[in-house]
């Protein structure tokens, strides 16, 4: 990030794009029906310790929805309430520039793990046939961590969407996050092998249904593409700072077993 500004610069977008497209240091965990999921390849002798930072990458070949539609789906906060099954609460707080905002998101975690929330700075970039959305955790003076939720950290998370035809695209989700808390191994496995593919299928379905929904819900309102439509209050990015993981309370959930199946699913 350049200069004193917290806003992502060209280098950050380029770095994120490269991570999405690179195969180096990724271990394939799932490959089925045009979808793949990878986790970061770790050096050997890590034992049963789950690393603090979880890196996961999902890629899907979408044959019936355009890249532009998938981009709209991800940035349309009104529509998110319709399709996101794990969302507890989500709202945009303020805009920082024509292509950046700050928002709040909380989500359900598999029981008995505590639910999580994040405050993130999100920024996006539209190119000829590519779309990139990135986010990372920030501290916002008015949205401190809450007692009933664990504040997670997005180090760099986002989407890379590349058009492969008028109604098709490659859709990649990449997350580098610290969920906070020493999570048990089954949670990490479940996230890569069960939850990630489920979420990807959900987003794809949301893309299929979006054009019809949008037709009935302010079809011309797309503030992420037309900044003059944005009614969010303006905020100076300098009021935000990057949220570091070590400044948040540590929660040890490593002894929790899955309510559904307690055996190690690795």
From TrEMBL:
<keyword id="KW-0446">Lipid-binding</keyword>
<keyword id="KW-0445">Lipid transport</keyword>
<dbReference type="InterPro" id="IPR041951">
    <property type="entry name" value="STARD10_START"/>
</dbReference>
<feature type="compositionally biased region" description="Basic and acidic residues">
    <location>
        <begin position="246"/>
        <end position="259"/>
    </location>
</feature>
<keyword id="KW-0969">Cilium</keyword>
<protein>
    <recommendedName>
        <fullName>START domain-containing protein 10</fullName>
    </recommendedName>
</protein>
<keyword id="KW-0813">Transport</keyword>
<dbReference type="InterPro" id="IPR002913">
    <property type="entry name" value="START_lipid-bd_dom"/>
</dbReference>
<keyword id="KW-0472">Membrane</keyword>
<dbReference type="GO" id="GO:0005829">
    <property type="term" value="C:cytosol"/>
</dbReference>
<keyword id="KW-0966">Cell projection</keyword>
<dbReference type="GO" id="GO:0008289">
    <property type="term" value="F:lipid binding"/>
</dbReference>
<keyword id="KW-0597">Phosphoprotein</keyword>
<dbReference type="InterPro" id="IPR051213">
    <property type="entry name" value="START_lipid_transfer"/>
</dbReference>
<keyword id="KW-0282">Flagellum</keyword>
<keyword id="KW-0963">Cytoplasm</keyword>
<dbReference type="GO" id="GO:0031514">
    <property type="term" value="C:motile cilium"/>
</dbReference>
<feature type="domain" description="START">
    <location>
        <begin position="38"/>
        <end position="212"/>
    </location>
</feature>
<dbReference type="GO" id="GO:0016020">
    <property type="term" value="C:membrane"/>
</dbReference>
<dbReference type="InterPro" id="IPR023393">
    <property type="entry name" value="START-like_dom_sf"/>
</dbReference>
<dbReference type="Pfam" id="PF01852">
    <property type="entry name" value="START"/>
</dbReference>
<keyword id="KW-0007">Acetylation</keyword>
<feature type="region of interest" description="Disordered">
    <location>
        <begin position="211"/>
        <end position="266"/>
    </location>
</feature>
<dbReference type="GO" id="GO:0006869">
    <property type="term" value="P:lipid transport"/>
</dbReference>
């Amino acid at each position: 990030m350049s200069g004193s500004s917290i806003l992502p610069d060209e280098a950050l977008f380029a770095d994120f794009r490269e991570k999405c497209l690179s195969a180096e240091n990724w271990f394939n965990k799932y490959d089925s029906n045009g979808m793949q999921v990878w986790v970061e390849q770790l050096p050997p002798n890590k034992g049963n310790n789950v690393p603090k930072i979880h890196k996961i990458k999902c890629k899907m070949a979408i044959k019936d929805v355009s890249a532009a539609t998938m981009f709209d789906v991800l940035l349309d906060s009104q529509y998110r309430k319709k399709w996101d099954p794990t969302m507890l609460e989500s709202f945009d707080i303020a805009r920082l520039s024509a292509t950046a905002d700050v928002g709040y998101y909380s989500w359900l975690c598999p029981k008995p793990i505590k639910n999580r929330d994040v405050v993130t700075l999100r920024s996006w970039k539209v190119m000829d046939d590519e779309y990139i959305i990135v986010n990372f955790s920030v501290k916002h003076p008015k949205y401190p961590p809450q007692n009933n939720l664990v504040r997670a950290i997005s180090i760099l998370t986002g989407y890379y969407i590349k058009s492969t035809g008028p109604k098709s695209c490659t859709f990649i989700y990449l997350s580098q996050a610290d969920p906070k808390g020493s999570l048990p191994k089954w949670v990490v496995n479940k996230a890569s092998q069960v939850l990630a593919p489920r979420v990807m299928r959900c987003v794809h379905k949301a893309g299929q249904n979006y054009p019809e929904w949008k037709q009935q819900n302010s079809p011309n309102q797309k503030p992420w593409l037309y900044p003059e439509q944005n009614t969010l209050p303006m905020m100076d990015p300098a009021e935000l700072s990057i949220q570091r993981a070590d400044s948040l309370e540590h929660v040890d959930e490593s002894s929790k077993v899955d309510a559904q199946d307690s055996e190690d699913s690795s």
